[in-house]
Amino acid sequence: MPVIDQSDLTSLVRETRQRLELSQTKFAQKLGVSFQSVNRWENGRTKPLPIALKQIEHLLHQ
Q: pTM score, two decimals?
């Protein structure tokens, strides 16, 4: 898996969620994570685990 810059990851998560027209809470539910996780990802405090990135990719391709 290629290395992704933190700011690119932050943008990826936010833009994916917005493209799907989901709140952070609904996006978190679809991914099976907490609202706090999505919030931290979007604010650049933490990075999604590789499994969460795969789930985000899957949502994008649906």
A: 0.86
